[in-house]
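Quick one, T. Sequence first:
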Amino acid sequence: MRRLSVSERRAANALGRVTSSGSPSGQVNQASRGTTHRAGTRRIDGESETVTMKLGVVGLGRMGSNMRERLREKGHDVLGYDPNPDVSDVRSLEALVEALPAPRAVWVMVPAGAPTRQVIEQLSRLLAPGDVVVDGGNSRFTDDKVNAALLAEHDVRYVDCGVSGGVWGRQNGYALMAGGHEDDITRLLPIFDALRPEGDRADSFVHAGGIGAGHYAKMVHNGIEYGLMQAYAEGYELLAAEESIADVPAVLRAWSQGTVVRSWLLDLLVQALSEDPGLGSISGYTEDSGEGRWTVEEAIAHAVPAPVISAALFARFASRQDDSPAMKAVSALRRQFGGHAVRSAEPVEVA
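Structure tokens:
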């Protein structure tokens, strides 16, 4: 039988599932809030040993629901709450907390900003000392210390965790970047290990540092993502502009094996073009979710040159303009100082 690793045994001991002799202990039935419970079990499957946990998930959108199902598939007991009763396992956040054994673990997957703050505030009033909250959304790292301080007033622990993997995470696993105290990270290792892909933990999970470090790492990750996507997009447009290139999707697909530019993002672009050659069904209007802006702001704060990420962010801004006021000004200046020809604006149709 495989012996638990040091980190796995620490996680098991933190959860109270393994006795001092290393033998498995039974799961104590759930009682009322404020009483000490065991929050999971040690399961033995053939030659493997797995620590399982009971976890609450708040927010069952695309990411949250997929994470819930992946954790269940890995043997964890997961209850989810969402304002949408069609997807929620319980009727309210209060009901979720009551259904969890102490010490409780609650994973929050709601939009960054005010929605996350509201959930954290509610949980601070519902949870008990020793419980832990994980913010797995795309919160700004500066929000983490505020959230942690609010929960600390009630002796509730806090971990921030950047999550990457998108809608494919349920099948392929998620890359996780966690910030917080080492004891809290160790306690949650069974959850992290279930969410990440198979293989070496270090290839898809990192305890990046103290509170805020997980979301900081995820912010930079997303900034890099902006730059990579923009580079692939520009290459695609350049290929499409050249008459001698007979099959643009085929060229991109030929880069998917053996080349230095192969990546999962490239695979997704190839797939998108196979589903919609020419991408005629969508517009070029591109939103940004915030992390790219925060990355550029941090680059400025640290005096770190980040021209690629900055240009990728600005390209998204440009995508939302039907006609650029800045470029109108440039055209006007060229006409003023050099008499250069300009293109007249299209007449506006009046309904």
